[in-house]
Amino acid sequence: MSAGHGVPAPTPTGGSPSIGDLLGDITRDLSTLMRQEVELAKAELRQSAKQSGKGAGMLGAAGIAAHFTVLFLLIAIWWSLGEQIGHGWSALVVALVLAVITAVLGVLGRNQIKAAPGLPRTTDSVKRIPDAVKGNEGNIR
Q1: pLDDT value at 1 more than 50
Q2: Closest CA to 47 of 137, 94, 112
Q3: Is residue 40 within 8 Å of residue 125, measured between CB atoms?
Q4: 66, 105 contact by CB (below 8 A)
Q5: Among 72, 81, 126, 135, which residue's CB has the most CB atoms within a 10 Å radius?
Q6: Rounded to an integer, what distance in angstroms lies between the CA atom of residue 89 and that of residue 55?
Q7: Distance between alpha carbon 110 and the CA centroid of its chain, in Å?
Q8: Distance of CA 19 to the CA centre of its chain
């Protein structure tokens, strides 16, 4: 039983707490710490997954746009060679517009995925646990 901030509370007889009481306090504190770390990891994972999902969606859209770019380029070549007049050039213009859209979506999607933060606070916090358990909080960087 702790009186607050790691200071053991005196026993009912007025003496020092028993080993069992101290171990109980340590177990409770570690359990609380682990629950807090799990909650922090969950929150960071949700945030990272959301941002990565956006990036993946944009990359998926870039893939679809790339498919249509190839399709229209092939149609433009086919149409130009088959007709030898202006119809092919209109298909080429459409293909070029789709190529620009593909490039923009690809860059935006890649940037979204690169910007996902991962689990920086959880990693830092978990690194501090061994020193905190040893009572060396002053050695924590």
Answers
A1: no
A2: 112
A3: yes
A4: no
A5: 72
A6: 33
A7: 14
A8: 42
Q: What is the pTM of this model?
A: 0.39
- Averaged over 109-125, what is the pLDDT? 83
Q: Could you give the C-alpha distances from 96 to 2, 43, 63, 90, in angstroms and in order? A: 71, 42, 15, 10
Residue with tokens 């009572």: 135
Return the bridge partners of 47, or none.
none
pLDDT at 109: 92
Question: What end-to-end distance do the CA atoms of the chain give, in Å?
Answer: 29
For all residues of the chain together, what is the average pLDDT?
79
- What three-state secondary structure class fits 7? strand
> Residue 78 pLDDT more than 80?
no
Tokens of 37: 């770390």
* Whether the predicted pLDDT of 2 surpasses 70: no
Other Cβ atoms less than 10 A from the Cβ of 65: the count is 19
**pLDDT for res 87:** 73
Q: Which uninterrupted H or E stretch holds 3?
A: strand 2-4
